[in-house]
Specification:
638 residues; alpha+beta; five-stranded mixed sheet; 22 strands; binds adenosine-5'-diphosphate
Length: 638
């Protein structure tokens, strides 16, 4: 029979696993048991609606068997089993959730620290850390034929038809021979195996059964001097359930540390880092449920892509109904991972109907509130951690504000952070900004740009800085939409320094500017005419201090939004342009020279207009449409 080869990347991982001097081999048992438990979950779910399964909840179990003579450790389950094709797909290639993260790491670094393995769910392959040969005997629910998969490691595997009485899977690990350093025989020792199950698999919801050696008092058959039966301690064995079976999320808070929960998270959700925060909910009332939720420390690499599947695992009294129930999480919290378990959900309900389930909605609302309040707590209690969270998922919260026509804006507003001019671009929340507002300050000022550095240098921001007031820097494309949807911060209106009246000039100062503008009307008209459609208006500015010009906009669409549409909404957004306004600093000598030239030397005035307009574009962080013309015009001045 021909041996089949493993797919290349699986081979690489296998090699690494078999040959590494790896200190944490014992986790193989956790991985194999966890697969068995998943397989039982699946069949148990099927059994709810399919009588042909013929098993009740209490019939499901995982069994460990040791054969010291053969040096085998067998883990068997009466779960769903695998077809021949599934054997090929599942055990012939590593492409499953758990190993994905690992694979990425491996690609990044050929000599990856082998200890990394322990941090990922390495799955089935970990059996090869302790076994030099692994056999998998399996029969799928609904099929009469069983199959035997066998492999002695990296050189491939075989599959043949086989006999198996009950549906389910048996993983037989032929343990390696002991060496000087490694005593693989320890995995034949029932005491050691129980220890490992307690350590890693105690919360598995199905009974893990194995032969256990124990001692008890037994009559010897003889009588003592008083005529009583003589007794002595005698060894005996019996099959027992060795795990406590209570899922970790069902255990009392006082019994389980955050660290325990974190470890569970890493294993269950295939992360290699502990979560940033664990949220535990135990609700009674209209609907009772328990939830264990996790905020990941970092955004997974595919988080902001279509591949990301949001949702919480949904259980009803310990039976998994759905692995990723999206209806339990609002989109703004799509990064949250976790488990919800409620005895009140009907098990027989179809997955489609579940989406409209009233009880589910109650749970979802409750969870949403709780996540919000936990994030707020994190922000208040551990700002550094919150900023780490913000680094990964801040963008998601901002999308959350904008999405759904702003339905979640009030939920999220307190959780937002923006870089500000206080302390060189450090993040602030809006409430903090409002609390620090200066004497006479009525608005929450912000400058938008591609980066903090660019936004900070906008000429229009100078009057606000002059006052010693704080400025927010909006550097994400979505930011301005966020600010628009929010409408205000703690009752104070936002003010975009590039487009809006800063509200700093008094009525008389404004009248003065308008008067000056009227006097300069011919010059301003000349400039507008020279620039044509490139600008909607040319005006005298009251915002400029050191710079001669700046580019503002008029109307709803700002330069940043224009940039957003150009980037993201390519087809639909094409042609959405901001209405540009060229603002001139009447006190600046360069501008005064231009004004004078409009009357005396129109050709020069046209050149100067083009130069100043180009400069206004550069100052706004835009690139020039015709850099060559600009260069020629500047060179003319030499
Ligand atoms: P993961 O569990 O992370 O998906 P594994 O390498 O551990 O990766 O397992 C690969 C796949 O093989 C599983 O997803 C499952 O479909 C299948 N499998 C493994 N063990 C069993 C089992 N005992 N019963 C049924 N299917 C199994």
């Amino acid at each position: 029979m021909a041996k089949k080869q493993f797919k290349a990347e699986s081979k690489k991982l296998l090699d690494l696993m078999i040959n590494s001097i790896y200190t944490n081999r014992e986790i193989f048992l956790r991985e194999i048991i966890s697969n068995a438990s998943d397989a039982i979950d699946k069949l148990c779910y099927i059994a709810l609606t399919d009588e042909s399964v013929g098993l009740a909840r209490e019939d499901f179990r995982i069994r460990l068997r040791v054969d010291k003579d053969m040096r085998t450790l067998t883990v068997s389950d009466n779960g769903v089993g695998m077809t021949k094709q599934e054997l090929e797909e599942n055990l012939g290639v590593i492409a499953h959730s758990g190993t994905l993260g690992f694979r990425k790491e491996l690609e990044a670094d050929e000599n990856a620290d082998v200890d990394i393995i322990g941090q990922f769910g390495v799955g089935f392959y970990s059996a090869f850390m302790v076994a030099d040969r692994v056999s998998v005997l399996t029969r799928k629910h609904g099929s009469e034929t069983a199959y035997l998969w066998q492999s002695a490691g990296a050189d491939g595997y075989t599959i043949v038809e086989a006999e198996k009485e009950e549906v389910g899977t048996e993983v037989i690990m032929h343990l390696k021979a002991d060496t000087e350093d490694e005593k693989y025989s320890e995995y034949l020792d029932s005491y050691r195996l129980r220890e490992l199950i307690k350590k890693y698999s105690d919360y598995i919801r199905w009974p893990i059964r194995m032969e256990v050696e124990d001692y008890r008092m037994e009559p010897t058959g003889e009588k003592d001097e008083n005529g009583e039966d003589k007794t002595e301690y005698r060894a005996y064995t019996e099959e027992r359930t060795v795990n406590s079976m209570v899922p970790i999320w069902q255990r009392a808070k006082s019994e389980v540390t955050d660290e325990d929960c974190g470890k569970f998270y890493m294993e269950r959700f295939h992360d290699y880092e502990m979560p940033l925060r664990v949220i535990r909910v135990s609700a009674e009332g209209l609907v009772s449920f328990k939830a264990m939720l996790f905020i990941p420390a970092r955004a997974p690499y595919n988080y902001y892509s279509k591949d990301w599947e949001a949702g919480l695992a949904l259980y009803s009294s310990g039976v998994m109904i759905m692995d990723k129930c999206a209806d339990l999480l609002p989109e703004c919290f799509a990064f949250v991972r976790g488990i919800v378990d409620s005895p009140d959900l009907s098990l027989n309900i179809s997955r489609e109907l579940l989406q409209h389930d009233r009880q589910l909605k109650v749970i979802a609302t409750n969870i949403e509130k709780r996540i919000k309040s936990e994030l707020k707590k994190l922000m208040d209690e551990d700002r550094e951690k919150y900023e780490q969270f913000w680094g990964g998922f801040g963008r998601q919260l901002k999308y959350g504000v904008v999405g759904d026509y702003g339905a979640k804006k009030d939920l999220l507003r307190e959780l937002l952070l923006f870089p500000s001019s206080r302390d060189g671009g450090k993040l602030t929340d809006l409430k903090g900004y409002v609390e620090r507002m200066g004497e006479g300050q009525e608005k929450v000022y912000y400058a938008a740009g591609e980066s903090v550095e660019k936004a900070a240098k906008l000429p229009q921001a100078e009057p606000v800085k002059e006052k010693g007031w704080e400025l927010l820097y909006l550097t994400d494309e979505v930011d301005e939409f966020v600010v628009q949807i929010l409408g205000d911060a703690d009752g104070k209106p936002f003010c975009n320094v590039s487009t809006e009246d800063l509200g700093l000039a008094s009525e008389s100062e404004k009248a003065e500017t308008r008067e000056k503008e009227e006097k300069l009307r011919p010059a301003l008209d000349f400039i507008k005419e020279t620039l044509g459609d490139a600008v909607a208006e040319v005006r005298l500015s009251d915002k400029l201090r050191s710079m001669p010009v700046c580019l503002g906009t008029e109307g709803e669409i700002t330069l940043e939004m224009e940039r957003y549409f150009a980037h993201f909404a390519q087809n639909e957004g094409e042609g959405i342009k901001a209405k540009r306004v060229l603002e001139l600093n009447g006190e600046h000598p360069a501008v005064q020279t231009l004004f004078a030239a409009t009357a005396t030397d129109p050709e020069k005035a046209r050149d100067l207009t083009k130069i100043l307009f180009a400069q206004a574009n550069l100052l706004a962080g835009l690139s020039l449409e015709d850099p060559q013309e600009y260069t020629s015009l500047i060179c003319k001045l030499f």
